[in-house]
Protein backbone atom coordinates (compact mmCIF):
# COMPACT_ATOMS: atom_id res chain seq x y z
CA UNK A 1 0.00 0.00 0.00
CA UNK A 2 1.40 3.34 -1.08
CA UNK A 3 1.77 6.30 1.26
CA UNK A 4 -1.12 8.08 -0.47
CA UNK A 5 -3.39 5.07 0.03
CA UNK A 6 -2.45 4.92 3.73
CA UNK A 7 -3.39 8.57 4.19
CA UNK A 8 -6.72 7.98 2.46
CA UNK A 9 -7.41 5.00 4.71
CA UNK A 10 -6.61 7.00 7.85
CA UNK A 11 -8.86 9.80 6.64
CA UNK A 12 -11.74 7.35 6.18
CA UNK A 13 -11.28 6.07 9.76
CA UNK A 14 -11.31 9.58 11.20
CA UNK A 15 -14.30 10.52 9.08
CA UNK A 16 -16.13 7.38 10.22
CA UNK A 17 -15.72 8.31 13.90
CA UNK A 18 -16.72 11.94 13.54
CA UNK A 19 -20.49 11.39 13.01
CA UNK A 20 -20.66 9.28 16.16
CA UNK A 21 -18.92 11.98 18.20
CA UNK A 22 -21.24 14.62 16.80
CA UNK A 23 -24.33 12.56 17.54
CA UNK A 24 -23.13 11.80 21.06
CA UNK A 25 -22.41 15.48 21.73
CA UNK A 26 -25.84 16.48 20.42
CA UNK A 27 -27.44 13.86 22.68
CA UNK A 28 -25.57 15.15 25.75
CA UNK A 29 -26.48 18.76 25.01
CA UNK A 30 -30.12 17.78 24.46
CA UNK A 31 -30.27 15.87 27.72
CA UNK A 32 -28.65 18.75 29.59
CA UNK A 33 -31.11 21.21 28.08
CA UNK A 34 -34.04 18.95 28.95
CA UNK A 35 -32.88 18.65 32.59
CA UNK A 36 -32.34 22.41 32.91
CA UNK A 37 -35.70 23.16 31.30
CA UNK A 38 -37.48 20.71 33.63
CA UNK A 39 -35.67 22.24 36.61
CA UNK A 40 -36.98 25.69 35.62
CA UNK A 41 -40.53 24.33 35.23
CA UNK A 42 -40.37 22.75 38.70
CA UNK A 43 -39.02 25.93 40.28
CA UNK A 44 -41.77 28.03 38.72
CA UNK A 45 -44.80 25.75 39.00
CA UNK A 46 -43.93 22.83 41.34
CA UNK A 47 -41.44 24.18 43.89
CA UNK A 48 -39.99 21.58 46.22
CA UNK A 49 -38.72 21.94 49.82
CA UNK A 50 -35.01 22.27 49.11
CA UNK A 51 -32.68 22.17 52.10
CA UNK A 52 -30.68 25.06 53.46
CA UNK A 53 -27.24 24.36 54.89
CA UNK A 54 -26.93 24.07 58.67
CA UNK A 55 -23.17 24.42 58.77
CA UNK A 56 -22.06 26.19 61.93
CA UNK A 57 -25.13 25.16 63.93
CA UNK A 58 -23.18 22.63 66.02
CA UNK A 59 -19.90 23.02 67.87
CA UNK A 60 -17.76 20.55 69.85
CA UNK A 61 -18.37 20.36 73.60
CA UNK A 62 -15.98 18.80 76.11
CA UNK A 63 -18.86 17.45 78.23
CA UNK A 64 -21.69 16.65 75.80
CA UNK A 65 -19.63 15.92 72.70
CA UNK A 66 -21.48 18.57 70.71
CA UNK A 67 -24.08 21.27 71.24
CA UNK A 68 -25.66 24.20 69.44
CA UNK A 69 -23.43 27.15 68.71
CA UNK A 70 -24.01 30.11 70.98
CA UNK A 71 -25.98 33.03 69.53
CA UNK A 72 -26.67 31.15 66.31
CA UNK A 73 -29.19 32.98 64.14
CA UNK A 74 -29.89 31.63 60.66
CA UNK A 75 -32.84 31.19 58.34
CA UNK A 76 -33.48 27.52 57.54
CA UNK A 77 -36.13 26.03 55.27
CA UNK A 78 -38.84 23.62 56.38
CA UNK A 79 -38.37 20.21 54.77
CA UNK A 80 -42.14 19.96 54.41
CA UNK A 81 -43.10 23.04 52.43
CA UNK A 82 -39.94 25.12 52.10
CA UNK A 83 -41.20 27.93 54.34
CA UNK A 84 -38.44 29.90 56.10
CA UNK A 85 -37.72 28.98 59.72
CA UNK A 86 -35.60 31.27 61.89
CA UNK A 87 -33.40 29.11 64.10
CA UNK A 88 -31.94 31.19 66.93
CA UNK A 89 -30.02 30.21 70.07
CA UNK A 90 -28.98 32.06 73.20
CA UNK A 91 -25.52 32.28 74.76
CA UNK A 92 -25.83 28.68 76.04
CA UNK A 93 -26.93 27.26 72.71
CA UNK A 94 -30.58 26.76 73.74
CA UNK A 95 -33.15 27.42 71.05
CA UNK A 96 -35.14 30.60 71.66
CA UNK A 97 -37.78 32.63 69.86
CA UNK A 98 -36.26 35.08 67.36
CA UNK A 99 -38.58 37.77 68.73
CA UNK A 100 -37.14 38.94 72.09
CA UNK A 101 -40.54 40.32 73.10
CA UNK A 102 -42.00 36.80 73.09
CA UNK A 103 -39.36 35.28 75.36
CA UNK A 104 -40.08 35.36 79.09
CA UNK A 105 -36.92 36.30 81.04
CA UNK A 106 -35.98 33.84 83.76
CA UNK A 107 -36.05 36.43 86.53
CA UNK A 108 -39.57 37.56 85.55
CA UNK A 109 -41.13 34.08 85.56
CA UNK A 110 -43.36 32.39 88.11
CA UNK A 111 -42.64 28.88 86.77
CA UNK A 112 -39.37 27.61 85.29
CA UNK A 113 -39.51 24.48 83.10
CA UNK A 114 -36.55 22.54 81.73
CA UNK A 115 -37.06 20.50 78.53
CA UNK A 116 -34.50 17.86 77.53
CA UNK A 117 -34.50 15.87 74.28
CA UNK A 118 -32.99 15.28 70.87
CA UNK A 119 -33.93 16.44 67.37
CA UNK A 120 -37.65 16.11 68.19
CA UNK A 121 -37.23 18.95 70.68
CA UNK A 122 -34.71 20.79 68.49
CA UNK A 123 -37.44 20.78 65.79
CA UNK A 124 -35.67 22.47 62.87
CA UNK A 125 -38.85 22.26 60.74
CA UNK A 126 -40.98 24.15 63.29
CA UNK A 127 -41.08 27.77 64.30
CA UNK A 128 -40.06 28.15 67.95
CA UNK A 129 -43.54 29.18 69.13
CA UNK A 130 -45.00 25.89 67.83
CA UNK A 131 -42.59 23.56 69.68
CA UNK A 132 -43.93 21.58 72.65
CA UNK A 133 -42.13 23.63 75.32
CA UNK A 134 -43.55 26.93 74.04
CA UNK A 135 -47.02 25.42 73.55
CA UNK A 136 -47.11 23.99 77.07
CA UNK A 137 -45.81 27.24 78.53
CA UNK A 138 -48.63 29.16 76.87
CA UNK A 139 -51.22 26.71 78.19
CA UNK A 140 -49.87 26.91 81.73
CA UNK A 141 -49.94 30.69 81.71
CA UNK A 142 -53.70 30.44 81.27
CA UNK A 143 -53.84 28.74 84.69
CA UNK A 144 -51.89 31.59 86.30
CA UNK A 145 -52.84 35.15 87.20
CA UNK A 146 -52.46 37.53 84.27
CA UNK A 147 -49.16 39.01 85.48
CA UNK A 148 -47.43 35.66 86.08
CA UNK A 149 -45.34 34.05 83.34
CA UNK A 150 -43.80 30.68 82.49
CA UNK A 151 -40.15 30.36 81.48
CA UNK A 152 -39.23 27.35 79.33
CA UNK A 153 -35.74 26.16 78.46
CA UNK A 154 -35.32 24.11 75.26
CA UNK A 155 -32.06 22.12 75.39
CA UNK A 156 -32.91 19.74 72.53
CA UNK A 157 -30.04 18.89 70.18
CA UNK A 158 -29.90 16.41 67.30
CA UNK A 159 -28.13 13.09 67.97
CA UNK A 160 -28.58 13.34 71.75
CA UNK A 161 -29.43 10.16 73.67
CA UNK A 162 -30.25 9.26 77.30
CA UNK A 163 -26.56 9.62 78.14
CA UNK A 164 -26.70 13.23 76.93
CA UNK A 165 -29.98 13.78 78.76
CA UNK A 166 -28.28 12.80 82.01
CA UNK A 167 -25.34 15.13 81.42
CA UNK A 168 -27.60 18.03 80.38
CA UNK A 169 -29.73 17.54 83.51
CA UNK A 170 -26.65 17.38 85.73
CA UNK A 171 -25.23 20.55 84.22
CA UNK A 172 -28.44 22.60 84.30
CA UNK A 173 -29.63 21.48 87.74
CA UNK A 174 -26.30 22.55 89.21
CA UNK A 175 -26.75 26.03 87.73
CA UNK A 176 -30.30 26.97 88.67
CA UNK A 177 -33.55 25.81 90.24
CA UNK A 178 -36.46 24.61 88.08
CA UNK A 179 -40.11 24.17 88.96
CA UNK A 180 -40.28 20.96 86.90
CA UNK A 181 -38.73 19.25 83.90
CA UNK A 182 -39.75 17.19 80.87
CA UNK A 183 -37.49 14.56 79.30
CA UNK A 184 -38.55 13.43 75.83
CA UNK A 185 -37.72 9.79 75.04
CA UNK A 186 -37.82 8.89 71.34
CA UNK A 187 -38.68 5.26 70.68
CA UNK A 188 -36.81 5.34 67.36
CA UNK A 189 -33.23 5.73 68.61
CA UNK A 190 -33.09 6.39 72.37
CA UNK A 191 -32.50 2.75 73.33
CA UNK A 192 -28.80 2.47 74.18
CA UNK A 193 -26.58 -0.56 74.57
CA UNK A 194 -24.44 0.93 77.34
CA UNK A 195 -24.86 3.74 79.85
CA UNK A 196 -22.09 5.51 81.72
CA UNK A 197 -21.82 8.94 83.27
CA UNK A 198 -18.56 9.95 81.67
CA UNK A 199 -18.08 12.87 79.34
CA UNK A 200 -18.54 12.38 75.60
CA UNK A 201 -15.73 12.76 73.09
CA UNK A 202 -15.92 16.13 71.37
CA UNK A 203 -17.21 15.99 67.80
CA UNK A 204 -19.49 17.85 65.39
CA UNK A 205 -22.35 16.02 63.61
CA UNK A 206 -21.59 15.63 59.91
CA UNK A 207 -24.03 18.08 58.36
CA UNK A 208 -22.21 18.36 55.04
CA UNK A 209 -20.29 15.39 53.64
CA UNK A 210 -16.98 16.13 51.99
CA UNK A 211 -16.19 14.74 48.54
CA UNK A 212 -13.23 12.42 48.36
CA UNK A 213 -12.19 10.28 45.40
CA UNK A 214 -12.36 6.66 46.63
CA UNK A 215 -9.36 4.43 46.10
CA UNK A 216 -11.45 1.30 46.51
CA UNK A 217 -14.54 -0.24 44.92
CA UNK A 218 -16.28 -0.82 48.26
CA UNK A 219 -19.90 0.32 48.05
CA UNK A 220 -20.05 2.01 51.47
CA UNK A 221 -16.97 4.11 50.67
CA UNK A 222 -18.47 5.36 47.41
CA UNK A 223 -21.75 6.14 49.16
CA UNK A 224 -20.03 8.15 51.90
CA UNK A 225 -17.49 10.05 49.81
CA UNK A 226 -19.26 10.44 46.45
CA UNK A 227 -23.03 9.92 46.66
CA UNK A 228 -23.60 11.69 49.99
CA UNK A 229 -21.69 14.84 48.88
CA UNK A 230 -23.66 14.82 45.62
CA UNK A 231 -26.88 14.51 47.61
CA UNK A 232 -25.89 17.40 49.91
CA UNK A 233 -25.18 19.61 46.92
CA UNK A 234 -28.29 18.79 44.92
CA UNK A 235 -30.83 18.82 47.77
CA UNK A 236 -29.86 22.45 48.46
CA UNK A 237 -30.10 23.54 44.83
CA UNK A 238 -32.26 21.29 42.67
CA UNK A 239 -36.06 21.15 42.98
CA UNK A 240 -36.09 18.38 40.39
CA UNK A 241 -33.70 16.27 42.45
CA UNK A 242 -35.74 16.72 45.64
CA UNK A 243 -38.92 15.75 43.77
CA UNK A 244 -37.53 12.45 42.52
CA UNK A 245 -35.64 11.71 45.73
CA UNK A 246 -38.84 11.91 47.79
CA UNK A 247 -40.77 9.73 45.35
CA UNK A 248 -38.17 7.04 44.82
CA UNK A 249 -37.47 6.31 48.49
CA UNK A 250 -38.42 2.63 48.22
CA UNK A 251 -36.13 2.09 45.23
CA UNK A 252 -33.23 3.91 46.89
CA UNK A 253 -33.71 1.94 50.10
CA UNK A 254 -33.52 -1.37 48.26
CA UNK A 255 -30.30 -0.14 46.66
CA UNK A 256 -28.94 0.73 50.11
CA UNK A 257 -29.08 4.46 49.41
CA UNK A 258 -31.15 5.72 52.33
CA UNK A 259 -30.79 6.99 55.88
CA UNK A 260 -34.05 5.26 56.82
CA UNK A 261 -33.89 2.10 58.89
CA UNK A 262 -36.01 0.01 61.25
CA UNK A 263 -34.52 -0.05 64.77
CA UNK A 264 -33.65 -3.55 65.97
CA UNK A 265 -35.82 -3.06 69.05
CA UNK A 266 -38.90 -3.65 66.85
CA UNK A 267 -37.85 -7.15 65.71
CA UNK A 268 -39.43 -9.90 67.80
CA UNK A 269 -36.55 -12.39 67.47
CA UNK A 270 -33.80 -9.95 68.49
CA UNK A 271 -32.20 -10.14 71.94
CA UNK A 272 -33.29 -6.92 73.62
CA UNK A 273 -32.30 -7.44 77.25
CA UNK A 274 -29.12 -5.39 76.99
CA UNK A 275 -30.88 -2.49 75.27
CA UNK A 276 -33.78 -2.45 77.71
CA UNK A 277 -31.62 -2.80 80.84
CA UNK A 278 -29.08 -0.16 79.81
CA UNK A 279 -31.80 2.26 78.76
CA UNK A 280 -33.77 1.69 81.96
CA UNK A 281 -30.60 2.28 83.97
CA UNK A 282 -30.13 5.65 82.25
CA UNK A 283 -33.74 6.69 82.86
CA UNK A 284 -33.56 5.68 86.53
CA UNK A 285 -30.32 7.63 86.96
CA UNK A 286 -31.85 10.72 85.34
CA UNK A 287 -34.92 10.41 87.56
CA UNK A 288 -32.75 10.02 90.67
CA UNK A 289 -30.72 13.07 89.66
CA UNK A 290 -33.85 15.22 89.57
CA UNK A 291 -34.88 13.82 92.97
CA UNK A 292 -31.55 14.95 94.41
CA UNK A 293 -32.42 18.50 93.38
CA UNK A 294 -36.03 18.16 94.53
CA UNK A 295 -37.27 18.84 90.99
CA UNK A 296 -40.28 16.95 89.59
CA UNK A 297 -39.61 15.36 86.20
CA UNK A 298 -41.96 13.90 83.60
CA UNK A 299 -40.71 11.41 81.02
CA UNK A 300 -42.75 11.41 77.82
CA UNK A 301 -42.41 8.90 75.00
CA UNK A 302 -42.24 10.08 71.39
CA UNK A 303 -43.48 7.26 69.12
CA UNK A 304 -41.92 6.53 65.74
CA UNK A 305 -44.04 7.81 62.88
CA UNK A 306 -44.65 4.32 61.47
CA UNK A 307 -46.12 3.26 64.83
CA UNK A 308 -48.89 5.80 64.23
CA UNK A 309 -49.55 5.82 60.50
CA UNK A 310 -50.19 2.56 58.65
CA UNK A 311 -49.09 4.00 55.30
CA UNK A 312 -45.71 4.95 56.78
CA UNK A 313 -45.25 1.40 58.06
CA UNK A 314 -46.26 0.03 54.65
CA UNK A 315 -43.54 2.15 53.08
CA UNK A 316 -40.93 0.78 55.49
CA UNK A 317 -41.98 -2.82 54.88
CA UNK A 318 -41.59 -2.26 51.14
CA UNK A 319 -38.24 -0.55 51.61
CA UNK A 320 -36.71 -3.37 53.62
CA UNK A 321 -38.87 -6.32 52.54
CA UNK A 322 -40.05 -7.12 56.08
CA UNK A 323 -42.00 -10.41 56.33
CA UNK A 324 -45.22 -10.64 58.32
CA UNK A 325 -44.68 -11.43 61.98
CA UNK A 326 -41.05 -10.31 62.06
CA UNK A 327 -41.84 -7.12 63.96
CA UNK A 328 -44.10 -5.87 66.72
CA UNK A 329 -44.78 -2.13 66.62
CA UNK A 330 -45.89 -2.00 70.25
CA UNK A 331 -42.99 -4.05 71.59
CA UNK A 332 -40.47 -1.27 72.48
CA UNK A 333 -43.08 0.77 74.36
CA UNK A 334 -44.28 -2.28 76.25
CA UNK A 335 -40.82 -3.52 77.19
CA UNK A 336 -39.50 -0.25 78.59
CA UNK A 337 -42.80 0.51 80.37
CA UNK A 338 -42.79 -2.89 82.07
CA UNK A 339 -39.12 -2.56 82.99
CA UNK A 340 -39.82 0.77 84.75
CA UNK A 341 -43.14 -0.26 86.31
CA UNK A 342 -41.75 -0.75 89.81
CA UNK A 343 -39.86 2.57 89.77
CA UNK A 344 -41.15 5.88 91.12
CA UNK A 345 -41.09 7.47 87.66
CA UNK A 346 -43.71 9.54 85.87
CA UNK A 347 -43.73 7.79 82.48
CA UNK A 348 -46.26 8.99 79.89
CA UNK A 349 -46.86 7.43 76.49
CA UNK A 350 -49.17 9.22 74.02
CA UNK A 351 -49.10 6.44 71.40
CA UNK A 352 -52.76 5.43 71.85
CA UNK A 353 -53.84 9.07 71.64
CA UNK A 354 -51.70 9.66 68.56
CA UNK A 355 -53.20 6.60 66.86
CA UNK A 356 -56.72 7.70 67.70
CA UNK A 357 -56.10 11.16 66.26
CA UNK A 358 -54.41 9.68 63.18
CA UNK A 359 -57.64 7.82 62.42
CA UNK A 360 -59.94 10.81 62.85
CA UNK A 361 -57.82 13.93 62.33
CA UNK A 362 -56.98 15.47 58.98
CA UNK A 363 -53.92 17.29 60.35
CA UNK A 364 -50.77 15.18 60.41
CA UNK A 365 -48.86 14.71 63.67
CA UNK A 366 -45.61 14.01 61.80
CA UNK A 367 -44.13 15.46 58.65
CA UNK A 368 -44.31 13.45 55.43
CA UNK A 369 -40.81 14.48 54.32
CA UNK A 370 -39.29 15.31 57.71
CA UNK A 371 -40.54 12.48 59.94
CA UNK A 372 -40.28 14.56 63.13
CA UNK A 373 -43.32 16.00 64.86
CA UNK A 374 -45.28 18.58 62.91
CA UNK A 375 -46.52 21.78 64.60
CA UNK A 376 -49.81 19.93 65.16
CA UNK A 377 -47.90 17.03 66.73
CA UNK A 378 -46.18 19.41 69.13
CA UNK A 379 -49.52 21.00 70.05
CA UNK A 380 -51.12 17.62 70.76
CA UNK A 381 -48.10 16.52 72.79
CA UNK A 382 -48.27 19.71 74.87
CA UNK A 383 -51.97 19.19 75.59
CA UNK A 384 -51.23 15.57 76.49
CA UNK A 385 -48.61 16.75 79.01
CA UNK A 386 -50.75 19.55 80.40
CA UNK A 387 -52.83 17.62 83.00
CA UNK A 388 -49.78 15.94 84.50
CA UNK A 389 -47.80 19.19 84.57
CA UNK A 390 -50.69 21.00 86.28
CA UNK A 391 -50.73 18.20 88.86
CA UNK A 392 -46.97 18.35 89.36
CA UNK A 393 -46.99 22.13 89.77
CA UNK A 394 -50.11 22.02 91.97
CA UNK A 395 -51.96 24.52 89.82
CA UNK A 396 -55.67 25.01 89.36
CA UNK A 397 -56.44 24.82 85.62
CA UNK A 398 -58.88 27.45 84.41
CA UNK A 399 -60.34 25.09 81.81
CA UNK A 400 -59.96 21.54 80.66
CA UNK A 401 -57.47 21.00 77.87
CA UNK A 402 -58.33 18.26 75.38
CA UNK A 403 -55.61 17.01 73.03
CA UNK A 404 -58.23 16.57 70.35
CA UNK A 405 -59.38 20.17 70.65
CA UNK A 406 -58.42 22.43 67.76
CA UNK A 407 -58.15 25.53 69.91
CA UNK A 408 -55.14 27.67 69.00
CA UNK A 409 -53.07 28.78 71.95
The main sheet comes to: 5 strands, parallel
Low-confidence parts, pLDDT < 50 over ≥5 residues? 404-409
* Terminal residue distance: 94 Å
What is the SS-derived class? Answer: alpha/beta
Specify the helix fraction band.
40-55%
Global shape: elongated
Rg is 26 Å
- Strand percentage lies at 5-15%
Instruction: Enumerate the strands of the largest sheet in spatial order, edge to edge or round the barrel.
Output: 7-6-8-9-10
Number of DSSP E strands: 10
Kindly state the mean pLDDT as a whole number? Answer: 88
Compute the number of helices. 13
Give helix and strand order, one letter per element, not per position.
HEEEEEEHHEHEHHHHEHHHEHH
List the helices and strands and how they pair.
Layout: H1 3-45, E1 58-61, E2 65-68, E3 73-77, E4 84-89, E5 95-96, E6 111-116, H2 119-122, H3 132-141, E7 150-154, H4 162-173, E8 180-186, H5 219-235, H6 239-247, H7 249-254, H8 273-292, E9 297-302, H9 305-308, H10 310-320, H11 331-339, E10 346-348, H12 351-360, H13 375-393
Parallel strand pairs: 6-7, 6-8, 8-9, 9-10
Antiparallel strand pairs: 1-2, 3-4, 4-5
